[in-house]
Amino acid sequence: MSNKETYKLQIGPTHPAFKEPVRFEFEVDGEHVLHADIDMGYTHRGIEHVSKERNFIQIIYLLERICGICSTSHPMAYCLAVENAAEIEVPARAKYIRTIVGELERLHSHLLWAGVAAHEVGFDTLFYTTWDIREKVMDCLEVISGNRVNYAMLTIGGVRRDIIGEVAEAVNKTVEYYSDLYSQLEDIMLNDMSLRLRTENVGILTYDEALKLCAVGPTARASGLAKDVRADYAVNAYPDIPWLKAITPNDVGKKPVGDIYDRIVVRVLEIKQSVDIIRFCMENMPGGEIVAEPKAVKVINQLKKVKAHGIGRYEGPRGEVSHYDILDNNECPVGVKVKAPTYSNIISWVPMFRGAEIADIPIIMSSIDPCIACSDRASFVEGEGKKTVSFGELRKLSMEKMNKIRRGL
Amino acid sequence: MLSTVSRIMQQFFGRRSTNVFPVKYAPESVIDALAGGDIHPPISMPEGYRGKLSYDFDKCIGCGMCLKVCPAKALEDYPIMDTEKNRPSKRIVFYRGKCTYCEECVKVCPVGAIKLNPDFMMANYEKYGDDQIEGIEKRREFEVKEGQ
Fold it and tell me: 3-class secondary structure for A48-72?
């Protein structure tokens, strides 16, 4: 028995391979990773706290800025939560427009991810191609909303802009563009030899692990876990779509392994699914109002009279986003709780990194499409350095907080 | 191979897809070109594009609804004396550097005094420079300071 020594390898918080600050501590044996430890909390901005000082309309635009990529997902979950609490009925047309904007966002997020992933494996041609393709959907979103990112389309009780006339034409054109392009995209992403060599059987998250660690979104679906909020707890126009289901690699006749290649498969198939959903919505969009109450000040006054709590769940491009809001006869909510998809997926990194090579660290890291800024909801500032909280202590703290909230209500 | 070469040539000699920003710091030749209307926006500005804010001082009634909805607190009010109605009123200034282009103030304004224009060239080095504050001239002219 040789006395093999292992080494600690620190990567982050700032590192060229990472798009956002997160720190990893790897225990490595030669080129192989034995264990990974994750340290978060470098981009905590206190958005939940700031939310308590702003009124219900102002918060929409604040929450939009939790994440630049899923800038519809967070306001969507928030609006659903407030509507749930105040029992506001959203007009049918608004539901369809929400779905279209959400799916366009998914389209651009998946294309962006494809580019980032391609860049991480050194396949820069694919990176340029996907980002070039992505420009079309960005332009389409600009035509719809007037903004390239942070669309500001949603409001409590509906949407702020209609999709009619020239705008509808632009959306239809975008749908056509992507359906024509899809076979080409599928060919590059799924059949390219160099990409397959780098991604197959790398960063495996098995079905059992995904289930146990509560993975969400494409990360979970790539492991064969058919879990999609759009299909399971459908909101917006999703209940009207009969063929909508969670996409797993089984759909292309492949047994799910849970490796990075499977995550590519799921995301590429979701691009097609998104295009189909947008087409369905454009064809079946009902007429009528786009917002329950167009006057923002009236909405604030209406919500002032509500004392309730609501939850909103929405399938963002990266997985389930859920918001929990507490309304308490006030212009501002007394509590806003955000749960971003990456928060659920962080822990999936640990089994993925186990046994991986050092060269594969960047691609495994980006394979879950992490959004660190989304998930940094807390940062430990008290005392010096780190403090480990045991399960019992954490449970006690959670119960204390829950009781406090209950008493408040 | 040939298609690659043609693509490269296209990118070398074709029309550039970017503009030089900020315009006022660009070389004079470029400013001339831009002044001549030879700018090429990424896409033609669609109707309802959320660009530069404009504020109509005379239309404004000083109700302050825009202050209530602005998420970025990019608006600031100041007192004036309304000579027509002979009573104190309020007007606003916009800090363009803080604006998030959500259009909430435009929607909420009861008299349509605030508008978003298709003008998108706003890059500047000074966040609180005079040209980044909409309505600053009027403020200097009409603001009623304490003790007046």
Answer: HHHHCCCCHHHHHHHHHCCCCCCCC
Which ipTM value was assigned to this complex? 0.78
Lowest mean pLDDT among A52-61, A78-87, A377-386: A377-386
Would you say the C-alpha torsion A367, A371, A377, A379 has a positive or negative sign? positive
Find the Cα–Cα–Cα–Cα dihedral A73, A79, A83, A86, rounded to 10°.
140
Nearest to A117 by CA among A358, A348, A367: A367
Nearest chain B residue (CA) to A298? B108
Give the nearest chain A residue to B45 (CA atoms).
Answer: A143
Every domain range in chain B assigned CATH 3.30.70.3270: 45-148
**SS3 breakdown of chain B: % helix, strand, coil, rounded to 5?**
30, 15, 55
Does residue B120 sit at the A interface (CB-CB below 8 Å)? no
Tokens 């399938």 belong to which residue? A315
CB contact under 8 A, A57 and B103: no
Per-residue pLDDT, B43: 55
Encoded tokens for A76: 């969507």
Q: What structural domains does chain A harbor? A: 7-43+344-408 (3.30.390), 55-337 (1.10.645.10)
Q: What is the pTM of this model?
A: 0.88
The 10s digit of each residue's pLDDT in A71-89 is 899 999 999 999 999 999 9
Helix axes A124-145, A165-191, angle to 10 degrees: 160
Residue B18, C-beta contacts closer than 8 angstroms, at least 6 positions apart:
none
Query: Is A57 near chain B, with CB under 8 Å?
Result: yes
Q: Pseudo-torsion of CA A168, A171, A173, A179, nearest 10°? A: -140
Q: How many CA atoms lie within 13 A of B83 on its CB side?
A: 4
Report the gap between the CA of A295 and the closest CA in chain B (Å): 7
Residue B124 CA: distances (Å) to CA of A3, B28, B128, B136: 61, 17, 10, 17
Contact yes or no for A324/A94 (Cβ under 8 A): no
C-alpha–C-alpha distance, residues B140 and B148, integer Å: 14
Rounded Cα–Cα distance for residues A95 and A83 (Å): 13
Tell which CATH classification among 3.40.50.360, 3.30.70.3270, 3.40.50.720, 2.40.50.140 matches the domain B45-148.
Answer: 3.30.70.3270
Pairwise CA distance, residues B41 & A170, whole Å: 17
pLDDT at A111 over 90: yes
The Cα of A333 is separated from the nearest Cα of chain B by a number of Å equal to 15
CB contact (8 A) between residue A297 and residue B70: no
Distances from the Cα of B132 to the Cα of A249, B39, B53, angstroms: 52, 22, 10
Which residue in the set B42, B68, B70 is minimally distant from A297, CB to CB? B68
Instruction: Give the DSSP letter string of B61-111.
Output: ----HHHHH-TT--EEEEEEEETTTTEEEEEEEEETTT-----HHHHH-SS
A161 shares contact with chain B (CB less than 8 Å)? yes
- The half-sphere exposure of A63 on its side-chain side, counting CA atoms within 13 A, is 32
Q: Which helix (H) or strand (E) holds A311?
A: strand A307-316
- DSSP label of A6: P
Comparing C-alpha atoms, which of A217, A278, A205, A214 is closest to residue A70?
A: A217
